[in-house]
Specification:
The complex is a heterodimer of chains A (193) and B (411). Chain A is mostly helical and 193 residues long. Chain A is built from nine helices and no strands. In chain A, helix 3 crosses helix 6 and helix 8 packs across helix 9 (168-185). The radius of gyration of chain A is 23 Å and the shape is globular. The termini of chain A are far apart. Chain B is α/β, with parallel strands linked by helices and 411 residues long. Chain B has two domains: 8-224, no CATH class; 228-381, Rhodanese-like domain (Oxidized Rhodanese, domain 1). Chain B is 53% helix and 6% strand. Chain B contains 18 helices and seven strands. Chain B has a five-stranded parallel β-sheet. Chain B has a two-stranded antiparallel sheet with strand order 1-2. In chain B, helix 12 crosses helix 16. Chain B starts with 7 loop residues before the first helix and ends in a 55-residue tail after the last helix. The mean pLDDT of chain B is 92. Classes of the chains: A mainly alpha (193), B alpha/beta (411). The interface between A and B is large, with 125 and 138 residues.
Chain lengths: 193, 411
């Protein structure tokens, strides 16, 4: 009996370090230049096959409108901006961008699983609490969502896709995004550094 | 005729075509994740000059996609007019971009990357996505207060080639070289500020730079098809349609479509300004023949339920305009049979016709001398469909759903 205990303890430690090893086995991210080439090829194929590029905010928009249409159909039918997507018996999900967005989530999940990067955690700068990080994640998300609709596209649908097909508006937009972020970065460095 | 982009809903059916988008989305999410874009600190590092992954991946992807797209269009495999080029609304785009920049540095993601982050379980990513939903909701509720601004500074399908008035190859080459400059600056910054070991990026990247500059050079040399080239590719098939008079629609049929609330009829009047001022069909757009090619960009952005009708006095100039628009891949274009002369003959009042008709007029000239430049204020400019509903004609118009998307990834 006395000998069994240490071995059991050893076993437990063993298992524990196994999981730790498992977690630390998360594969490193790929070379950014390789990622650039792969993303470029995906973007090209999207244009080549379907005629449109990538996007994300449009899909999220329509998913939201489904909820709004369910909660307050009368409201949707009265706001001109929403009528286009869900007025009357229009189905806001009947759009390619919704399926692209669902695909994006699935692809991200699959890669996370394949490379052992799944797991609940909050990624944040070392000097702030989780709650602070969550607050700013929500605030930043809200600004992103608002700005993306105002600019008629997000980083993927406007900057990346419109940039590759040489739209003037998309390039102006891209510079604006980076200008906004760089201009504020110094003042909020506590969030990240 | 160019084969790409494909008419997906014709091949796979309406909902079936969405599977293709699901697969493309999957690849998109996968690549974002392996690039590390699911982690907010990696994205934010860009703005503290420590790590340039964001700009490298984004700019690199733009360069790779751009070279491949314009090589494909240059070789006639892909039709640039049928791919979605985000229309430019300059100021809303810039203001929205600045707001997003602020959101980026506070929240650590852009919408696409936050989806991937949330999908891998990052709590900050999940909360960010919730924030995006809230922001979109807020926009829907508030845009009504400043709709004028939201629709302001509209420039249509406006490309860098139009802005700088140079050919596509030069822009492709310059952006490729500029991108290499950005990578060089980025790596200097990563080395000195981020204290990164640059060897990790591998020496193959130098080869990739050489390859992309050569590829951009090839795109420049191949060039892009002109309107004449594009017409040559389809002329055999389309000249036959002209000869069979398949594309000449009777005024009565046009009038019927004008009365149909589901269809938008846009008459493109290619006659001289004098003729246009003398008489034109109500709401017709005046586009002189010389400007038709440039105007095609505008037509490509019209709703898909639009029927385009080109009209000249007779049919000669209208047929030429039709060739130009077909070559530019404008969908659903027809020619007004017998031209404006036939229109006036059918819909004009007896008095007008007997008083103002010319006995003798040249080919494709206006056959009437109206006393005043009343434009569309003659009754014949806006005939009442009920009065003329008994008119007999052979139906020619077959509206088709154009290839390529009617909206971008943000609609």
């Amino acid at each position: 009996m006395a000998t069994a205990n240490p071995s059991m303890e050893q076993n437990i430690t063993q298992t524990h370090s196994d999981t730790q090893q498992e977690a630390s086995q998360a594969k490193p991210y790929v070379n950014p230049y390789l990622a650039a080439i792969l993303l470029g090829v995906v973007l090209f194929l999207a244009f080549f096959i379907t005629g449109s590029g990538l996007g994300a905010s449009g899909g999220l928009n329509r998913l939201l409108v489904v909820v709004e249409d369910f909660v307050a159909p009368g409201h949707v039918d009265n706001v001109p901006y929403l009528i286009d997507m869900a007025g009357g018996d229009k189905n806001p999900l009947d759009s390619w961008i919704v399926f692209l967005t669902i695909g994006t989530v699935l692809g991200g999940f699959f890669s996370g699983w394949q490379n052992k990067r799944l797991g609940f955690e909050t990624v944040k700068g070392p000097r702030i609490s989780k709650t602070t990080r969550w607050f700013f994640a929500f605030l930043g998300g809200a600004l992103m969502g608002y700005g993306a609709r105002l600019a008629r596209g997000c980083t993927s649908g406007q900057a990346l896709s419109g940039g590759a097909v040489l739209s003037v508006g998309s390039w102006a937009f891209m510079f604006a995004v980076f200008a906004g972020a760089y201009a504020l970065a110094y003042f909020v460095r506590r969030l990240w550094l | 005729m160019t084969i790409f982009p494909l008419q997906l809903s014709e091949i796979f059916g309406h909902w079936g075509s969405y599977v293709v988008y699901l697969i493309i989305g999957f690849a998109f999410g996968y690549v974002l994740e392996i690039a590390g874009f699911g982690k907010s600190d990696k994205l934010a590092a860009q703005f503290y000059f420590k790590e340039w992954t964001v700009l490298k991946v984004m700019f690199g992807a733009i360069i790779v996609a751009m070279i491949l797209i314009f090589a494909a269009t240059g070789l006639g495999l892909l039709d640039y007019n049928l791919i979605w080029v985000n229309p430019t609304y300059l100021w809303p785009g810039i203001v929205g971009g600045l707001i997003m920049g602020v959101g980026f540095i506070l929240g650590g993601f852009c919408p696409g990357t936050s989806l991937v982050s949330a999908a891998t379980g990052k709590v900050d990513g999940i909360i960010f996505v919730a924030g995006v939903f809230f922001g979109i909701f807020l926009f829907g509720e508030t845009v009504g207060f400043y709709e004028d601004f939201w629709y302001s500074s509209y420039m249509g399908r406006f490309t860098l080639m139009d802005l700088f008035n140079v050919n596509t190859g030069i822009i492709v080459l310059l952006i490729t070289i500029a991108g290499m400059g950005v990578f060089a600056i980025g790596e200097l910054s990563e080395k000195h500020i981020g204290k990164m070991d640059l060897a990790q990026f591998g020496n193959w990247r130098y080869g990739a730079i050489v390859v992309s500059i050569i590829a951009a050079g090839i795109v420049f040399v191949i060039g892009q098809p002109t309107n004449a080239d594009r017409w040559d590719a389809i002329s055999a098939e389309q000249e036959a349609r002209i000869a069979d008079r398949e594309i000449f629609a009777h005024p009565g049929e046009i009038l019927e479509f004008m009365a149909d609330p589901k269809i938008i009829v846009q008459v493109i009047d290619v006659r001289s300004e004098t003729d246009f001022n003398l008489f034109h069909i109500l709401d017709a757009t005046h586009v002189p023949l010389a400007d038709v090619e440039d105007y095609a960009d505008t037509l490509l952005l019209q709703p898909i339920n639009t029927l385009f009708v080109v009209a000249s006095n007779d049919e000669t100039a209208a047929t030429e305009a039709w060739r130009i628009l077909m070559a530019e891949s404008v969908p659903n274009v027809y020619i007004l049979e017998g031209g404006i002369n036939n229109w006036v003959a059918l819909f004009g009042s007896e008095d007008d016709l007997s008083q103002f008709a010319l006995a003798d007029y040249g080919d494709d000239n206006f056959a009437y001398v109206f006393p005043e430049l009343l434009g569309s204020r003659y009754a014949a400019a806006n005939p009442n469909h009920d009065v003329f509903s008994e008119m007999e004609f052979e139906s020619k118009v077959e509206l088709s759903i154009p290839r390529g998307p009617a909206s971008g990834g943000c609609g």
